[in-house]
Amino acid sequence: MAEDEREHVRVAIVGSGFGGLGAAARLRREGVTDFVVLERAGSVGGTWRDNTYPGCACDVPSHLYSFSFAPHADWPRTFSGQEHIRAYLEQVTDRFGLRPHLRLDTEVKRMRWDSARLCWEIETSGGRLCADVVVSATGPLSDPKVPDVPGIGTFPGKVFHSARWDHDYDLRGKRVAMVGTGASAIQIVPAIQPEVEHLTLFQRTPPWVLPRVDRDISDVERRLHRTLPFTAKLRRGLLWGIREVQVQAFTKYPSGLGPVERMAERNIARAVKDPALRARLTPDYRIGCKRILLSNTYYPALARENVDVLASGLAEIDGSTLVAADGSTAEVDAIVFGTGFHVTDMPIAERVVGADGRTLAQAWAETGMRSLRGASAAGFPNWLTIIGPNTGLGNSSMILMIESQLNYMADFVRQLDVLGGRAALDARPEAVQAWNDRVQERMKRTVWNTGGCTSWYLDANGRNTTVWPGTTTEFRSATRRVDLAEYEVLRVRGRDSDDTKVEVGA
């Protein structure tokens, strides 16, 4: 296809989870219809499409884990399961007329900034196109991380990651190893424990687990929310407000988490009577340093006779024998890795080539992930992230942060329209530096940096590039609008001549 015939769109959105669908819906609400949503899978849903493991559910209350502009009155439980959240995202897709914009089974292979034409050249599995603006909404929980365990090639049984669950493999009567103790593992363990012959949990670090106050939402409540929508808003507001108050303990006063820690210790004691097992399951770091998990069934499952907890990570594999770092062994038929995702080294960064010819991964190699207000990276004009660096939360709903970033994206597009003509915005390096200096300074006193643990919030250099060290209200204020002083305005001159130039400045 000739260059001039290549498809051109105003905005290309990468990913169709909460971030991507939210961006698409916001563009439609802004009156922007010239956009596409590029999705490598065959349907929408993001992490709620990919994670179908037994027991998969959200640990954020349902009425807070939805868009404020797309309320849902029919959540079946206070903490909804994967199938209900995915169904909600399908409803959002239809409600805002997003299906004509979807390009399913279309994986982004490469995105390269064209400085002469001020647009992104995008190579996908379904062809090529160019876009004035790219919104990357691939999310931090999209690419599973499987450790390269020595000897894994010798294992004769079944191996899969929790986010790629093999439903064709029957675990009933099998000896199963669960590797990892994160949010997925604490849901999987009680779901499969009654069915398997034996379950061995490889626990490198025990998590803090609090009771899950979950229940059915009654028909009366649902009818009330449908009939009087303000009651659902009030419910959402109360859930939000409680977490806004709680976050102060995480970000400013970690010592105040002591009572919560004692509550978690009582939760262990109630379910686990064996003192040796109880000791293995009790963390030695401040609660909140790693994400606090919620479950009423995790500890009771670990106390069953067909479960062993090895207080050590998986070190090597010799045939069907799994060897822990402390020398303990287990004979198993199947291995389930609940070992998380590529969060601080997002694979999409390797596919994004900026103005100077470097990939985003190369630009972040020395500094770690960083961006302006969680959205813009210097040297990558008109490229925005949803759930970018330091936008994660440790105690509330990510949908709140996503909506703030959608506000920023909408104003970014509006500013380009105001500038008129062929224009692009490139974050100034000094603005990115100043923003990240402020974030990292605030991070110093948070429980995530001072709690005495090593978590997936930290990159290889021990730098917290994942979590936002403040309230969602503060982030909403910081991303309400684009400050053009933090950007260089790029313009094209002489588009029809051979000496096309880019002028920097307003």
Automatic annotation (TrEMBL):
Q: Does the keyword Oxidoreductase apply?
A: yes
Q: Keyword Flavoprotein on this protein? A: yes
Its domain of life? Answer: Bacteria
Tell me the SUPFAM superfamilies matching this sequence: FAD/NAD(P)-binding domain
* Entries under InterPro entries matching the protein: FAD-bind_Monooxygenase_sf, FAD/NAD-bd_sf, Flavin_mOase-like
Q: Which Gene3D superfamilies has this protein been placed in?
A: FAD/NAD(P)-binding domain (3.50.50.60)
Pfam families reported in the protein's UniProt record: FMO-like
Can you provide one Gene Ontology molecular function annotated for this UniProt record? monooxygenase activity
Keyword annotations from UniProtKB, A to Z = FAD, Flavoprotein, Monooxygenase, Oxidoreductase
Describe the family membership recorded for this protein in Swiss-Prot or TrEMBL.
Answer: Belongs to the FAD-binding monooxygenase family.
State the protein's name: Cyclohexanone monooxygenase
Q: Which organism is it from?
A: Streptomyces graminofaciens
User: What high-level taxonomic lineage is stated for the organism?
Assistant: Bacteria, Bacillati, Actinomycetota, Actinomycetes, Kitasatosporales
